[in-house]
Design brief:
The chain is 34% helix and 16% strand. It is an alpha/beta fold. It is globular, with a radius of gyration of 24 Å.
């Protein structure tokens, strides 16, 4: 390990991205201190200094840190506004993790016109006018609070409390995830299920990022501090897949297959447990700002990272506490009833359908100059 002369505080640090962030900082010569609640520890971090505090509360952070100073603080967990206030004036640079729920339309796409996030939304999409509502839903309130917290961080940046950079994480996958979405597929295959209800054919794209790649985005900011200062960046795997493709790749990593039974969202019942949101609209953002400005280079391709994730969960099945927190109830009897009922309802419609046709190419293709083609064009 290179001689250390700089110090970094990682707030969080024991979740999916934490070990990658810690090792990345160590490789860059930082002496790393980890602040977390102490809910769980990682054996590979035994040689680090651990500070136990609750990053959801400013007072807890301030009491734990006292008058200490750091060259860099990376916050991956806690209430961003309280973390920023607690470490203001305590560090030179502050890299914070926010999330895609900051974008209007993330939770309720129908609130926007046209409905939903723009496909490949850039970082400025968070600043579009938020439609007024009589009653603010939990999702809308959460989105507004995230947006206000981001602005608060940059207010502190302008007041020179630190140099701030914010990354907006999408759905993170990898070992030790508190909500392992891949488990919905892995467990069914392990249990011998041959069919899986998937709302709207699984054509939705929900932005994802491997934990190792998420850490790579943060390290790109560490490596390019001046270009990162005062900026917000989206994060995500460079290649994204639909839910149906994700299911197919997960099964392939287990050397198995599973049949997708497409059912409209309104009637998918237990199949809606595959989605973290109450809709199937796309959530896809653009990450090219980080590529262009920070020279971010992807650490691991999505398909490879997913395969490693699947193998990890086969060896380390999530415990009851994690599974009980999932929307997915794994109610196979209910799934069979929905599949049977939907199949029966659709059987009558199928016999009424005409054969699907493909529109002819609109331009003529004559066989000789000056002549019409076979369609008299």
């Amino acid at each position: 390990m290179p001689e250390t002369s700089r110090t970094a505080l990682v707030i969080g640090g024991t979740g999916p991205t934490g070990p990658h962030i810690v090792s990345g900082l160590a490789e860059r010569g930082y002496e790393v201190v980890v602040l977390h609640r102490g809910s769980h520890e990682l054996a590979e971090q035994d040689d680090l200094e651990h500070i136990h505090a609750d990053p959801h509360f400013r007072e807890s952070i301030e009491q734990a840190l006292g008058s200490r100073r750091f060259d860099l603080v990376i916050a991956t967990y806690g209430r961003l506004r309280h973390v920023a206030d607690a470490i203001a004036g305590m560090c030179e640079a502050f890299i914070a993790v926010s999330g895609l729920p900051v974008y209007p339309g993330y939770h309720e796409p129908g609130r926007l016109v046209p409905a939903g996030l723009p496909v490949s939304a850039d970082e400025f999409a968070s600043d579009v006018a938020r439609p007024p509502v009589d009653i603010e839903s939990d999702g809308e309130r959460f989105s507004r609070l995230i947006h206000e917290s981001e602005r608060h961080v940059f207010d502190l940046h302008r007041r020179e409390a630190f140099r701030a950079t914010i990354f907006r994480y999408p759905s993170i996958y990898g070992p030790r995830q508190l909500y392992p979405r891949e488990w919905s597929i892995i467990k069914r295959i392990m249990d011998g299920r041959r069919q899986l209800i998937v709302p709207d054919a699984g054509l939705s794209i929900l932005m994802r990022c491997a934990a190792e790649n998420a850490a790579g985005f943060l390290m790109a900011a560490v490596d390019n501090p001046e270009r990162a200062s005062g900026q917000v960046f989206n994060a995500g795997d460079l290649r994204q897949y639909s839910l149906a493709q994700w299911i197919e790749m997960t099964a392939a990593a287990m050397e198995r297959t599973i049949e997708i039974v497409s059912v409209p969202w309104e009637f998918a019942g237990p199949g809606r447990g595959l989605f973290p949101l109450a809709h199937t609209a796309h959530v896809l953002v653009d990450v090219h700002k980080a590529i262009d400005r920070l020279h971010y280079t992807e650490i691991v391709p999505a398909r490879e990272a997913l395969g490693a994730t699947v193998r990890w969960y086969l060896d380390h099945p999530p415990g009851k506490k994690v599974v009980d927190n999932m929307i997915d109830a794994f109610d196979y009897a209910a799934e069979d009833r929905v599949i049977a009922a939907y199949g029966e309802a659709m059987s009558g419609l199928r016999v009424m359908q005409s054969e699907a046709t493909v529109a002819a190419h609109p331009y003529p293709h004559p066989e000789r100059a000056g002549a019409a083609d076979h369609r008299q064009r």
